[in-house]
Amino acid sequence: MFRKILIGLAVVVAILIVVISMQPADFKIERSTTINAPAATVFAQVNDFHKWEVWSPWAKLDPNMKTTYEGPAAGPGAKYSWVGDSKVGEGRMTIVDSRAPELVKIKLEFLKPMAATNDTEFSFRPEGNRTKVTWTMSGKNGFMSKAFGLFMNMDKMVGGDFEKGLAQMKFAAEAAPTP
After folding, report:
1. How far apart (Å, rounded) are the C-alpha atoms in residues 50 and 52?
2. Model's pTM, two decimal places?
3. Domain boundaries defined on the chain
4. Distance (Å, rounded) from C-alpha 140 to C-alpha 120?
5. What is the pLDDT of residues 119-157, one digit of tens each?
6. How far apart are CA 5 and CA 98, in angstroms?
7. CB of 89 within 8 A of CB of 66?
């Protein structure tokens, strides 16, 4: 009887491993909004990590979070690192490409609670006096990320944070003086 239970358990584990392995290897999360401000004003909110505290959906989750800035104040080479509680973890961002006022590309490195490196991109498209901003994060799903994805919808989880951040960015950019 015990042997049958072990064999049944082994079959279930094997099926689970196969199902997890068949999940997509890549992911992409993307959200957009239109902001009533020129592209240069919206671009400035993203290209300078010092301005993220106003609109980032994660900046207020841990009031004791330690942040550091390195490199130039804005643009390529600017770095932002954080160490916080279990809600925000630990990581760093580096601007790897910046083309005013149309694009900012960021290398996003999560160190804790789970190590991962993702590409993040903000694009800014003028629409008259308004700007359509699109926030995208893409990367590879490892085995644990694939397993996590079976139980949690990462697009809804992280996408919800993107929506909140874009709404806060909209408020900040619309209140900011025009450069």
Report:
1. 6
2. 0.83
3. 26-175
4. 13
5. 999 999 999 889 999 999 988 877 777 667 667 777 777
6. 58
7. no
Summarised one tens digit per residue, pLDDT across range 50-64 is 999 999 988 888 888
Tokens 């085995």 — which residue? 143
For residues 85 and 61, give the distance between their C-alpha atoms in angstroms, rounded to a whole number. 9
The neighbouring-strand residues paired with 41 are none
What's the CATH number for 26-175?
Answer: 3.30.530.20
> Where do we find the tokens 């006022």?
101
| Rounded Cα distance, 66 and 143, in Å | 30
